[in-house]
């Protein structure tokens, strides 16, 4: 399978080095080490982590000397819990910063009632169920954000995510059907689809024409079983090693994923975002493993 004739670039997420939700994971690692090791592993792009400088010239210099660029940064929406204006104003600031770095896509997720950051909330039992009114608020807000992104020639891509109320395919379908397909795109994440019990290949097939950004990670089936049996939270699952890089886990059908991509016109970034405890899983080692795997499978 050859993806080398597609306009696809490969990036890495800093969460593999330092976890924004659990700063104790990789707390000792600098953003310089993170960027250097991404480049060393053969990646050309990065998303933004909490340790990255907020000062544009400083960050730009750190990127430029390593031949790296910023391709996206997570944005948290609070349409369900705060006045809409608050999220939209914060988004404009976020958009402008990313635009000045040359990014074209902004990954967004609603987190107003999310349990993803609650250490002891059981992932499958405590996940929020959104009301009709909450769905309306999110959809309306996203359409407005999509327009704001277009002002700068950018797009928003919605990131379904465990614990947020939009994690299953049914929930994601509902939101996507309520939003304007020309304003709100999809962020395809193999790991969150699989964790939620969905078939990642089917999700990609369904949304390939609306996907603007991609996150690659695999899932370890034995840890997923533990999450269910022991009623673990999202953070506990991450600490236990639920996620790993492509080429290491055992639940994602990568050949299926690559086939859908190969048959599509997708162009943009694929980002390795397999958050693990860097004290257990050396980030550079796993970045190299992922890079090698993707190259062997796709020629990228």
TrEMBL record:
Entry keyword annotation includes Transit peptide: no
**The protein's annotated pathway:** Polyol metabolism; myo-inositol degradation into acetyl-CoA; acetyl-CoA from myo-inositol: step 2/7
Q: Which GO terms describe its molecular function?
A: manganese ion binding; myo-inosose-2 dehydratase activity
Highest taxon listed in the record's lineage: Bacteria
What Gene Ontology biological process does one annotation of this record name? Answer: inositol catabolic process
Xylose isomerase-like TIM barrel domain ranges (all copies): 39-295
Gene3D superfamilies documented for this protein: Divalent-metal-dependent TIM barrel enzymes (3.20.20.150)
Enzymatic class: lyase
Spell out the reaction equation it catalyses: scyllo-inosose = 3D-3,5/4-trihydroxycyclohexane-1,2-dione + H2O
Cofactor(s) of this protein: Co(2+); Mn(2+); glutathione
- Which keywords belong to this entry? Cobalt, Lyase, Manganese
Mind telling me which InterPro entries this protein's record contains?
A: IolE (IPR023952), IolE/MocC (IPR030823), IolE/XylAMocC-like (IPR050312), Xyl_isomerase-like_sf (IPR036237), Xyl_isomerase-like_TIM-brl (IPR013022)
Q: Could you say which EC number(s) this protein's record lists?
A: 4.2.1.44
The UniProt similarity line reads: Belongs to the IolE/MocC family.
Annotated protein name in UniProt: Inosose dehydratase
Organism this protein belongs to = Vallitalea guaymasensis
**Encoding gene per record:** iolE
């Amino acid at each position: 399978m050859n993806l080398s004739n597609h306009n696809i670039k490969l990036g890495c997420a800093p969460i593999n080095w330092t976890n924004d939700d659990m700063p104790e994971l990789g707390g000792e690692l600098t953003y310089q080490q993170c960027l250097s090791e991404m480049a060393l592993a053969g990646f050309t792009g990065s998303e933004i982590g909490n340790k990255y400088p907020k000062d544009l010239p400083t960050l730009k210099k750190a990127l430029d000397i390593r031949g790296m660029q910023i391709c996206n940064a997570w944005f948290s929406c609070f349409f369900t819990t705060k006045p809409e204006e608050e999220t939209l104003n914060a988004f404009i600031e976020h958009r402008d910063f990313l635009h000045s770095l040359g990014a074209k896509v902004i990954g967004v997720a609603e987190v107003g009632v999310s349990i993803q950051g609650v250490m002891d909330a059981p992932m499958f039992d405590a996940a929020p169920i959104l009301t009709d009114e909450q769905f309306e608020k999110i959809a309306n807000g996203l359409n407005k954000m999509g327009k704001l992104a277009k002002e700068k020639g950018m797009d928003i891509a919605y990131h379904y995510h465990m614990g947020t109320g939009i994690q299953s395919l049914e929930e994601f379908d509902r939101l996507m059907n309520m939003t304007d397909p020309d304003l709100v795109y999809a962020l395809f994440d193999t790991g969150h689809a699989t964790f939620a019990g969905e078939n990642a290949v089917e999700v990609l097939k369904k949304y390939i024409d609306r996907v603007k950004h991609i996150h690659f990670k695999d899932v370890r089936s034995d840890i997923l079983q533990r999450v269910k049996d022991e009623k673990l939270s999202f953070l506990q699952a991450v600490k236990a090693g639920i996620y790993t890089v492509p080429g290491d886990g055992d639940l994602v059908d990568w050949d299926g994923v690559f086939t859908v991509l190969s048959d599509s016109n997708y162009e943009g970034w694929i980002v390795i975002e397999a958050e693990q405890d860097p004290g257990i899983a050396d980030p550079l080692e796993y970045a190299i493993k992922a890079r090698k795997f993707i190259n062997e499978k796709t020629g990228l």
